[in-house]
Amino acid sequence: MTQHWWHVAISWALAAAGFGIMAWLAASRHAAAKRRLALFGPRERRQG
Description:
The protein is 92% helix and 0% strand. It has a domain at 16-48. It is built from 2 helices and no strands. The protein is rod-shaped and about 60 Å long.
């Protein structure tokens, strides 16, 4: 594999890892917000 293709492969891997980390962080923020809203939201208690 030439140096160019190593660069391309590493760049794609870093981009995929970056997007994966951003998706994981967004999902964790969403879960935290959902838990926080469940504490304050009276709707959950009324329906259940």
